[in-house]
Amino acid sequence: xxxxxxxxxxxxxxxxxxxxxxxxxxxxxxxxxxxxxxxxxxxxxxxxxxxxxxxxxxxxxxxxxxxx
Length: 68
Description:
By secondary structure, the protein is mainly beta. It has one domain (5-12, 20-67): Rubrerythrin, domain 2 (Single Sheet). The chain is 0% helix and 34% strand. It has a four-stranded antiparallel β-sheet, with no helix packed on it. Strands 2-3 form a two-stranded antiparallel ribbon. The protein is globular and about 30 Å long.
């Protein structure tokens, strides 16, 4: 796995859980609620530590976060 490339742990066993409206920061593990569902190409900001991430969606419905 490349440096600064993370997989959202909550998505590993979720199957077709529906639209995710939160994410756990890969840097500080804080849960961040979102107004809109996660989407491929979305940029996120952790409200706690200030880290920024680019969301990458996969065909199986999982999300990965790449630090910007």
